[in-house]
Predict the 3D structure of the following.
Amino acid sequence: MRTAQRGNVMKRAWALVATAVVLAALGAPAAAPAASGDVVLDWYGYAGQELNQAAQMRNQPQRARLEMAMVQGAVYDAVNAIARTNEPYLIAPRAGRWYSQDAAAATAAYRVVIALLPDRRPALEPRYEQSLAAIRDGAAKTGGIKVGNRAAEAMLAARKDDGRDGPRQPVFGTEPGVWRPTPPAFAVSDSAWIGDVEPFLIPSPERLRTRGPNPLTSAAYAKDFNETKELGAADSATRTADQTDTALYWDRAPWDQILVSLAESQKLNANDIARLLAIVSLAGADAQITVVNEKNYWNTWRPITAIREADSDGNPATTPDPDWTPLIETPGFPEYPAGHTTGSGALVGALQSFFGTDRMAFSAFSSSSGTTRSFTSFSQALEEAIDSRVWGGIHWRTADVVGARIGKRIARWERSRYFKPVQKD
């Protein structure tokens, strides 16, 4: 916690001590001090680490985004039930305003994660106990734990039989334009079922069905083709050093780091942080469901296949290069639309909604490039994410732009229907 923030917490604490004396004389419980948000961020990190590792081991990297939405939705409902500032996502358990938000947040997160990953309970239980140990024993702590349990139970019940681990399998093809596994690993992600999962926010992914990719014989397809062929090649002679850094930087987008940085720099309290993380996580989950549904529907080939086999596409403006290789290794699922920019579009739309502005200065380090990049707005970061997938050689620009558009639509749907402020008592 920053020094200034610690100072603010101490000032609030002294004010609450004085209030507690009066309330004790009246026989009423003292209101709990506003939680700093450290516990919410701690469990965002714990959950993310565990869920991402488990998803990677199952060859289902996109799975973690769905499960993080479950965690953060429950954490939000638990903390918000105490703060009572906004509409709940699923449930608003009865709670005193003096209940511990930290106990509620830690309990909700812990209960959802161990329900999803029961074999990780021995590793997570000490962390949970450590979180609770830092909270003073008493009715506020007990109440917070109760509320966290209720929120977790509601989330787990709501997502039971939601389509996770469904039967859908990827479909390969040999015809021009149809997806097939790509070199060098010819990897295939076991995540096609995600497109059939029940969304968290929108009625159905089919509601956002797009017009589809550009026809292979169109001028628009040739334009995308030639841009990616030139700038996305591993040995591109025209891609600049900054474009290369951008492609590598966004390969593993540092959005989590950006979220934590914003929470700290904007001095958000526990309730605000819980709401922020819920907004971005739920929008991100629906973005993942929708984009996989689209990928399954259109099932289009990747640039590495299209460029190597361009003599079969029927377009005179495209020329094959049988040895062409992208800067970044191609993922093991269809090309259109881009999952990376769909998720980024949803996240940026959620951030713009939460902060009420697009203009926000922030910086973040990316482990995939080993560099730090700085931005003056959320939309600037999204534009870089769109460019990065072209310069990395794994997408056509149309797929990137359409993906970002889908994500922004999901964020707008969320803003108009969820997390609205409530009137104070």
Observations:
- The first helix runs from residue 3 to 26.
- The beta strands are 359-366, 371-377.
